[in-house]
Design brief:
Radius of gyration: 17 Å
Strand content: under 5%
Order of helices and strands: HEHHEHH
Helix content: 55-70%
Mean pLDDT: 95
Distance between the termini: 50 Å
Number of helices: 5
């Protein structure tokens, strides 16, 4: 951006990237939710998605605010965070592609549909959540937000841990 210091310019670039992906993933999730419901998907009771729906974007906004207060990231910190964030996004994209229409922000299970066991699901049950933790940690570094980055990563990992129990119960894995 014109007239901004290099660190602030990097911070705004990071904020834009994060917001762009958040909007794109939200739109994809909404489309998939509609399709899943039309096919008879069952939603998990007592899901924590509402907490996630507030906490996830709030995490990035708080990181951006902390980065702004700190004056933006040094280039090396930005690059390290960006690399982690991109790797996490790559894993998440692979998980989303492997789930196809079955991926959404909500836990929606198609009765009788087989468990997805290809792609990253071949090695772990919840690669999407591994990726989300990486996204949060990477964004925290990318935005020069060590305090909010760490706090929200830890908080969101706990929320995801609860979510995993709900998903596994719905999928008959626990």
């Amino acid at each position: 951006m014109r007239g901004l210091s290099a660190p602030l310019s990097l911070l705004y670039d990071a904020g834009f990237l994060v917001a762009l992906y958040l909007v794109c993933e939200s739109l994809l999730s909404l489309r998939n939710e509609r399709r899943l419901r039309a096919r008879g998907a069952v939603e998990a009771p007592n899901d924590v998605w509402r907490v996630m729906a507030v906490t996830y974007p709030l995490a990035f906004a708080a990181m951006f605010a902390e980065g702004l207060a700190r004056g933006g990231p040094p280039r090396t910190v930005f690059v390290a965070g960006f690399v982690l964030w991109i790797l996490a996004k790559a894993l998440k994209s692979w998980a989303i592609a492997s789930l196809g229409e079955r991926w959404s922000f909500r836990v929606l299970v198609l009765p009788g549909a087989p468990l997805v066991t290809h792609g990253p699901y071949r090695w772990t049950r919840h690669p999407n959540y591994v990726a989300v933790a990486g996204e949060l940690a990477g964004a925290g570094a990318m935005m020069e937000a060590p305090v909010t980055g760490l706090v929200f990563t830890v908080v969101f990992v706990e929320i995801m841990r609860r979510r995993i129990r709900i998903e596994e119960r719905m999928l008959g894995l626990s």
